[in-house]
Structure formats: C-alpha cells, structure tokens
Amino acid sequence: MSKGALIVGIDDYTIQNPLSGCISDAKKIDKLLKRNGDKDKTLNFSTTLLTSDKKSKVSSRNILKEAKELFSRECEIALFYFSGHGYSDEMGSFLITPDLENHYSGIEMQQIINLAKNSKAREVMIILDCCYSGYAAIIPMLGENLTIIKEGMSIITASRKNEFAIEEEGKGGVFTSLFCEALEGGAADILGDVTIAGAYNYVDKLLGFFAQRPQFKSSVSTYKTIRKCKSDLELSEFHEIVNLFDDKDEKFKLDKSYEPHFGGNEVEKHRKYRILQKYAKLRIIAPRVPEEAKKQNDLVDDFTYHAAEFGGYCELTPTGKFYWQLVKKGLI
User: Fold this and answer.
1) Which secondary-structure segment (H or E) carries 214?
2) CA angle 195, 200, 206 (to 5 degrees)
3) Which CATH number fits domain 3-228: 3.90.180.10, 3.10.150.10, 3.40.50.880, 3.40.50.1460?
4) Contact yes or no for 313/319 (Cβ under 8 A)
5) Sign for the pseudo-dihedral over CA of 71, 77, 83, 87
6) Fewest CB within 10 A of the end CB: N or C in the chain?
C-alpha cells in the first residue's frame, strides 16, 4: 500500500510575527520523505507540500481540504506535518495560518486530530513543530492530563502544552532539525529502518540541552517504517545468523583459515568471516581471544582478526540473541 504525507510550512504572517525557518523545514521534510535513504533511493511517500511563499498561498481552508483528502485515502501510512505558529487560549489550541484575523484563531489542533481519527490509513502520524503543540489530542473537559487517540495513531509535538518551540536564527526549528537527522539515519536500526518511535527517541535525547521538551503520544502495537536508510548489512546476510549459530548460546570457533590475510583458498570460510566482521561492527557478536594470547602480547585484544589468529571464537551479544530469535521465528 502507498504512503501519503501533507507537509505545511508557514513563515509569512501579518498579525503574528513572521518566522524564518518553517518553509525550509517543510521542504527538508518533504525531500526526506519522498525517497528513502537506501542505496537505490527508492520511492517512499507521495507528498503534498503547502508553504506560505509566493508560489503557494496557504490558508486554513486549503490546509483542511488537503488534510481531509489525506486522511480519506486507504494507505499504509498517512502523515501530517506542520511548522509555523501555534496558539493557545481558553477556547482551545490552534495552528496559526496566514489568514488569521482578530476574531479567528486558525485551525484547531483538535480538528486535525478528529480528521485523523476517522482516517482509513493503517497508521496515522501527526508531527507538529509549533508553540503549545503539546495540547494536541488533549480534551480539556476530561482533564488536561488525559489524551484520547485512536489505535494506530502517533503524535509527536515539539513542545509541551505550555512551552514555546525554539527556532534558531537561520537554522529553522530545533525540533525539526533533529527530526531530519533522525530520518537521515540517526534513528535507523541495524537494518536501516526508521520508525516514528525511533525518531522520537533520537529527538528526545538530544533536546535535553534545550528548554523545550517534545511529547510522544501513541496507540500503536507495531510501528511501521517511515524511512529506509543505508545499512552495513544486507538482509540475506542478516538471515545468516541462524546458519552461523545453530543455537543462540553457541560459540562460533575461529582459526587462521577464516582470515584471508593468513592465506589459503577457503572461499566459504572467508564469506562467513566477512559476515562475522559486519556483525561485530554492529555489536551483534562479541569476538573472544584466549586469555593466554592476551597475556603474551599487550596489543592482542577481543577483535575478530585476533580471534582468528589465536584460535578464539565469536558469541552472540544480548542484542544478537534478540535478533537471532526474531530471524529464527521468521519475524524479520
């Protein structure tokens, strides 16, 4: 099934102070979502980009029109991203649009949430980089600490309900900058997959230096990949883990015949050794060298090369054992 995204970036305001980085932030998100970051740059999301520059006049009406269109599609993922001003008062919380008037506050965040609740997509993602965005999905009459979202929906906001979202001069939003880094591979797992939960985790840790705190609200049992990035490990090589280790607690014995540097024409052993080297780099396995060899030479340590040279072995790390079980059960 396809993936669809509506991406909104607004710098130009009349009543509110203009912003400087929201359009560029939206364009970065648009570019990253359109194609994956794998070696073939495969197609990913079908995107609609709305910005407040001269080419596109953004209003609350056309944002809501495009949002309705997005959430009415039957697709794998429907994603809504907004970068601009946010506002909150006793009447509710709002995404501010350029057509703001004195008695009109913009698009209620709850309007977007309500549209998303009725979405036909298997998974819905809402990402808001604006002040007071933490109000999204809060129902005031039920208490400000209670959030109601449907199954299959995730919401990431740049700040809590009472916080500003920081924009750095010439760099755009701090939140979006980190979110883009996550999509570029900072939040990728061993196979290069980035999920919404992984992206939030990346942003959350790095935003510790700033006053604003991102919020993550989700009701999802299994997170889908939002972007595929390059991985040092091919899927076929990953599946080899259950062939190299018959049991998750097994030790893989090494000797000099595995390391091409020591000569020989053991093609199959060399193939397995290359995969083990990749596993070690990703901390799926831990090479072990005999203690006697370490005592005799201070330069010898637990590396795959030394394990082969001195007749050591490799064993699965706790992470490796986890992935071994997933492959064994056919879950990867």
Assistant:
1) none
2) 130
3) 3.40.50.1460
4) no
5) positive
6) N
